[in-house]
Design goal:
Helices cover 59% and strands 12% of the residues. The two termini are 62 Å apart. It is elongated. The strands form two sheets. A five-stranded mixed β-sheet has the order 2-4-5-7-6. It has a two-stranded antiparallel ribbon with strand order 1-3. The chain is built from eight helices and seven strands, in the order ααααβαββαββααββ. It has 345 residues and is an alpha+beta fold. The relative contact order is 0.07. The chain has helices at 6-28, 36-77, 92-147, 157-185, 198-215, 235-251, 298-303, 310-320; strands at residues 194-197, 219-221, 230-233, 258-266, 269-276, 325-330, 334-342. It binds adenosine-5'-diphosphate. The site of adenosine-5'-diphosphate (ADP) has 23 residues, from helix 6 and helix 8. The site of adenosine-5'-diphosphate has 23 residues, from helix 6 and helix 8.
Length: 345
């Protein structure tokens, strides 16, 4: 329904008020004094003061409304979604309504965001303490056994110290990944792009992982033509992406399998593909795979030294470059991760 204009409303109220004054006077006057001419005269006379009263009330209400509108606008100006309305006093009631509805929507969204953040914070803390608990308890167990006489027992002392050291390494890995993810999630990460050859970088990473791959009989293959593939990206972060994906392809690769690292020129970007013929991932896990702490097989991941943060870190880094990452996988057949980065000539 179209709302009545403030001016028309004022006139109507003044007329109704004047009519009420006339009615009031004649209710108290004896019947014989009533005549139409007198009634019209009193009506016309009373319409002036009632109009003045109504106009005064209107302007004082209008002023308050304007102040209220400004206050709401100021609040919204400091938020994510500042007001788009221009002040137009003829439509102040409608403007105020629009502003208050928009403001309420902003608040609702903000509350939703804070609730999600709170859930995330609790989940994150729970996951972190869970991840750290195992290595800490392991270290405690080895240290206590050594203190309880194990130190003098040559059949276990060195072995227990080495195991304790492994657990310390595990804690360092978890803390490094946590540091990386918190930097990425708080937006502290500054991408520092430069031109470099990603083929050379991938070779470097593959060489560093060769020992682990060979231990499982896995071959890491790169394009044979050796032609440099220049991209414009943050070299240090891209190394982290390659390390995480290549390490995963070995961790979850089958014995005597293969990991292929390929590069495709797709116009403005280079698509990097890391494909293995390992255990693969069931379809239902794929949508959540890049979530922090998400693992398909928890015990297998921990056994392999995984923190469950690797793919979340990878996704953040690729998205910080305004690029995308995808995964395709078939259980027992293998997995292909592909991501794009800006090409450089
Ligand atoms: P994690 O530290 O557990 O390896 P990631 O975030 O790197 O954590 O990976 C999340 C999960 O995705 C892993 O636990 C594993 O189940 C699955 N995954 C990752 N890469 C592969 C792969 N190449 N093949 C099979 N499963 C994989």
């Amino acid at each position: 329904m179209k709302s009545i204009s403030p001016k028309l409303l004022l006139i109507l109220i003044a007329v109704v008020l004047a009519a009420l004054i006339v009615a009031g006077i004649f209710v108290y006057l004896p019947q014989e004094f009533f005549n139409w001419r007198a009634a019209i005269f009193i009506f016309l006379l009373s319409i002036i003061p009632s109009s003045v009263v109504i106009v005064c009330i209107h302007f004082s209400v209008l002023k308050k409304m304007e102040r209220l509108l400004d206050t709401v606008k100021n609040y919204r100006a400091n938020g994510d979604n500042p007001s788009q309305l221009t002040t137009n006093s003829a439509n102040n009631i409608d403007n105020l309504k629009l502003e208050i509805v928009a403001w309420a929507d902003d608040r609702k969204n903000e509350i939703e965001r804070l609730k999600k953040l709170e859930v995330y914070r609790k989940e994150f803390l729970g996951n972190v303490s869970h991840e750290l608990k195992t290595p800490i308890f392991n270290i405690q167990g080895y240290v206590l056994t050594l203190l309880d006489g194990g130190l003098e027992d040559p059949s276990i002392n060195r072995n227990y110290l080495e195991r304790a050291e492994k657990s310390v390494d595990r804690m360092i890995t978890i803390i490094d990944d946590l540091e990386a993810i918190s930097q990425l999630e708080t937006g502290e990460l500054q991408i520092e792009p430069e031109r470099f050859d990603i083929l050379a970088l991938a070779k470097d990473v593959a060489e560093a992982q060769e020992m682990k791959a060979t231990a499982k009989g896995i071959i890491l293959t790169l394009p044979e033509d050796n032609k440099p593939v220049y991209i414009f990206a943050d070299r240090f972060r891209v190394r982290q992406v390659l390390v995480n994906l290549i390490v995963n392809s070995v961790k979850y690769g089958k014995e005597y399998g293969e990991t292929k690292i390929r590069f495709y020129d797709i116009g403005e970007n280079i698509m990097v593909e890391i494909a293995d013929n390992g255990i693969g991932i069931a379809k239902e896990h794929l949508p959540r795979l890049f979530e922090r702490f998400y693992r398909v097989d928890k015990s297998r991941s921990r056994e392999q030294g995984g923190t469950g943060l690797g793919l979340a870190i990878v996704k953040h880094i690729i998205e910080a470059h305004n690029q995308t990452i995808n995964v395709m996988s078939t259980e027992s057949a293998g997995t292909v991760f592909s991501f794009t980065l800006k090409k450089s000539t």
